[in-house]
Design a protein that fits this description.
The complex is a heterodimer of chains A (106) and B (90). With 106 residues, chain A is an alpha+beta fold. Chain A has a single domain, classed as Glutaredoxin. Helices cover 40% and strands 24% of the residues of chain A. In chain A, the strands form 3 sheets. Chain A has a two-stranded parallel ribbon with strand order 1-2. The longest helix of chain A has 15 residues. Chain B has 90 residues and is α+β, with helices and mostly antiparallel strands. Chain B has a domain of 41 residues. Chain B is 22% helix and 20% strand. A two-stranded antiparallel sheet of chain B has the order 1-2. In chain B, strand 1 and strand 2 form a beta hairpin. The mean pLDDT of chain B is 78. Classes of the chains: A alpha+beta (106), B alpha+beta (90). The interface between A and B is large, with 64 and 46 residues.
Chain lengths: 106, 90
């Protein structure tokens, strides 16, 4: 999350909205955001419906797993990072840049 | 000359054999094993499942904002970073 915050300007430059998403409550996420200086919205999936829809629900632990999805303006998934790879936002940035270039040259 | 070359080759062969015989040092096992990670069933090219969720963002009315993924259709790309608060050291 911190890595994403550091690169938020790059994302915004590519016409992209960044969201964090976890199964934690809004107050818990707000505290986390304040502590770590995170300015993009953190979504609370406390009912675990979204982590289940995205196949990321860990039945044993009762929490969502780490993954990053890049969704284009048509609502289509264009890039997926899973596991510890998802900590590093660089491949996601590349995917966003590709989407921006797509738009520039139809 | 030929004898010397052969001797050198033999020596080289011996060195390689010794190197190969040495068992590789086992890589240190991580102190904390990551939790079992189920993989997403979604694939690139598929439509992202829609959702509406509350967030940490505060709206102009001073209340917490809710976001709907499909509201961004035709407007912005969306990066959705699923994270685990309990495992996020920073």
């Amino acid at each position: 999350m911190k890595a994403y915050q550091a690169d938020i300007a790059k994302f915004e430059g590519t016409d992209t909205q960044v969201f964090g998403l976890s199964v934690d409550s809004v107050p818990a996420n707000r505290e986390f955001a304040t502590k770590n200086g995170i300015t993009f919205p953190l979504l609370s999936d406390f009912k675990r419906t979204v982590v289940k829809d995205y196949g990321l629900f860990n039945e044993e632990g009762g929490y969502g797993n780490r993954a990053t999805f890049v969704i284009d303006k048509d609502g289509i998934i264009q890039h997926i990072d899973e596991g510890n790879v998802a900590i590093d936002p660089s491949s996601v940035e590349d995917a966003c840049n590709i989407l921006t270039h797509k738009k520039a040259t139809p | 000359m030929i004898k010397r070359t052969l001797g050198l080759l033999f020596l080289l062969g011996t060195v390689v054999a010794i190197a190969a015989a040495q068992t590789p040092t086992p890589s240190p096992t991580p102190a904390r094993t990551p939790p079992p990670a189920p993989h997403t069933n979604l694939k690139v090219g598929q439509a992202a499942p829609d959702f509406t969720l509350p967030s940490t963002a505060i709206g102009p009315d001073g209340r917490g904002m809710r976001f709907k993924l499909s509201d961004f259709k035709g407007k912005k790309n969306v990066v959705l970073a699923f994270y685990v608060l309990a495992f996020t050291g920073g």
